[in-house]
Amino acid sequence: MDYAVTLEAAVPVYNVETPNEAVRIAISKTGDMLNPDLKYVEITAVNRTCADCGTSHEPAFIAANDGLVALELEMVVFNAEGDEHALRIARKEIGQKLRNIPLKILNIVQHDSSEEESLSG
Fold first, then answer.
1. What angle do CA 108, 109, 113 make, to 5 degrees?
2. Which domains does the chain have, with CATH numbers?
């Protein structure tokens, strides 16, 4: 089975003044760490939701010109034996490239690869 695995990463950035600047730098930094080996990982900045009040917040938190940015990293794992196996593969592949960056599991769903084949064909 093929699975789409989505992980959340907390990416630190330094010497930034605005949340938009922090997000741009975090996406660039993460892309540099993943490429060229994992160029198929999709990187997206996501708004955060407060667990207590449900308020949506920007993906970056800035204090003293340093920031922490929430990014979603999604990859498709092919021929996995199950969702746990797919998760282990994704965490290993991404985790090896993003050393010292915390990762959290957000979502694991079965992926229909026939959709991609019909779009590219």
1. 130
2. 3-112 (3.30.70)
